[in-house]
Design a protein that fits this description.
By secondary structure, the chain is α+β, with helices and mostly antiparallel strands. It has one domain (10-96). The chain is built from 1 helix and 7 strands, in the order E-E-E-E-E-E-E-H. It has one helix at 83-96; strands at residues 10-13, 20-23, 26-29, 39-47, 53-57, 69-71, 75-77. A hairpin with a 2-residue loop joins strand 2 (20-23) and strand 3. The radius of gyration is 20 Å and the shape is elongated. The N and C termini lie far apart (59 Å).
């Protein structure tokens, strides 16, 4: 199993091109329901019909109420940092830049 993919975890879609998804009884492909850059909450983690790890997302169903799931590789965990953490990371990056003298 993917260590970050747990029920209740927040994730971000990183690839919605030719999205593969599955529903009970069949698998299909196409651009559908989820969008790159959007944040979702994992509702369930399952093994897909082809043996891969898949996730189902809170609130993602089509009008016919089919319960679609998606390949976990198309998502990444949502990482939330505080402003202090962001500033500290920036400071570490700036400290790596060599000191440049002002040109005359």
């Amino acid at each position: 199993m993917i260590s970050w993919a747990n029920v209740g975890a927040k994730c971000v879609c990183i690839n919605d091109d030719s999205m593969s998804f599955w529903a009970p009884g069949y698998s299909v492909s196409g651009k559908f329901l989820v969008r790159k850059g959007q944040t979702y909450t994992i509702r369930s983690v399952e093994i897909t019909p082809d043996g891969k790890v898949g996730i189902k997302l809170v609130g993602v169903q089509d009008r016919s109420r089919l319960d679609y799931g998606y390949a976990v590789e198309r998502f990444r965990p949502l990482v939330v940092r505080t402003q202090e953490q962001d500033v500290e990371m920036f400071k570490r990056l700036v400290d790596r830049v060599p000191n440049m003298e002002t040109a005359q």
